[in-house]
Predict the structure.
Amino acid sequence: MPRTPVDGTRLRVLTLLREQDAPADGLTAETVAALLGLPHPAALTHLRLLTALGLLRTDGSGARVRYRRDEARIAEAARLFEKGWQRVGPRHDPPRSGTLR
């Protein structure tokens, strides 16, 4: 499970991409880094994680990769948080140390 940033950087990235009225083809990591005042490698790390989680989409390749929000996936994640995490299926407790089941 991905770690949650204490400083909220990933939320800032998502907010920036929404508020900047990003062009249809998105923003580059360099632009995101500059607008948020982050080092380029840090911005790239956050963008890649958000992409891996399915919250961002990419276009382009190499140094010209552009990132944009995946509104459908973001809405889906928001609904999960609003409803609260619900258990899906039976509960399986891990075995206690030193015992066999």
Observations:
- The CA atoms of residues 44 and 80 lie 26 Å apart.
- The chain has four helices and three strands.
- The chain has a mean pLDDT of 81.
